[in-house]
Amino acid sequence: MRTALVIGTGLIGTSVALALAGRGVRVHLSDHDPDRARTAAALGAGSVQEPEGPVDLAVVAVPPAHVARTVAEAIARGAARGFLDVASVKGGPRRELEALGCDLTRYIGTHPMAGAERSGPLAGTADLFEGRPWVLTPTSAAGAATDTEVLNLALELVALCRAVPVVMDADAHDRAVALVSHTPQLLSSMVAARLEDADEAAVRLCGQGIRDVTRIAASDPGMWVDILSANPGPVADILAAVAADLDETVRSLRALQSADEDKRGDGAQGIEDVLRRGNAGRERVPGKHGAAPAAYETVAVFIGDQPGELARIFADAGRAGVNIEDVRIEHATGQQSGLIQLFVEPQAAPGLTAALRERGWSIRQ
Questions:
Q1: Residue 119 DSSP code
Q2: Spans of the chain below 50 pLDDT
Q3: Helix (H) or strand (E) holding 58
Q4: Interatomic CA distance for residues 92 and 340, integer angstroms
Q5: What CATH code is carried by the domain that includes residue 360?
Q6: Closest Cα to residue 340, out of 303, 307, 312?
Q7: The predicted structure's pLDDT at residue 333
Q8: Residue 160 shares a structural domain with residue 208
Q9: What does the pLDDT read at residue 208?
Q10: Which of 147, 111, 34 is nearest to 9 (CA)?
Q11: Same domain, 272 and 196
């Protein structure tokens, strides 16, 4: 791939363009808002000049509702040898393209499983996709099978963005993202919405648990309305199942208030059941490098909120010969300090604890 056209310079489009430009591809940028395209160009994502002829690959990075029309227009004007989109739903846009009579042999639907709470070109980064799954949904139907050249261009794009290709059926993809992406967004927003009118005294008690659950609630509502409008059925099905669990959990909690010992026992059993099923589901979430999640030991260290403190603790861990597998920071409300949790292999925890103590760090037992 030597040339590419990126249509849509939001977070994903700009990140794709930055990754391609950084690896020597000549990238042309287009957006319905010229200022966004110029911003992306100023970041080094490419040029806003029109390409002189067809490029190798056109990447359509617009909201799901606009994918089919945008791809169809690009195909009609012969903008590229191959066309793909990066929207978070795949079945609907493909069916719309079929209805428009487009040549699907030159198109492949894709979805990089990466994102951020921020949006727009200024949120773009060339390493957004590194190590992340990138779903490809080639068509195999007679007369509309994705051309091998187009599939190869898509695979080259994934490689240049240093992502991991995953081939799926389009509708299977939509059911999967409803479970692992779209429903979590709504549930996070619903929990965060409880905080809107909460007493200030309650909000000041927020700890890492509520921060973890509500992190993605900071996402752009307009963007998510577009996404959910393109995949409402699968998301509604999953939410209906969650609602059934919620109803059962409410009944169990009410039973715990009963004066009847048997009812309290049933209530406790109901709560334990949902928590255990949660344990089992969490264990299936892939861990580091896509492997099964490891059982790491946590070394918790008090840390001041001053420049250089994070670098110092990581350097001290490195001097101790310990690899930090994961990290979490919990800020102390109203204080210039916090708690950093270093996740390490169990056999490394005692040595790291001793080494950090020697270097003056305060360890929480």
A1: -
A2: none
A3: strand 55-60
A4: 44
A5: 3.30.70.260
A6: 303
A7: 61
A8: no
A9: 81
A10: 34
A11: yes
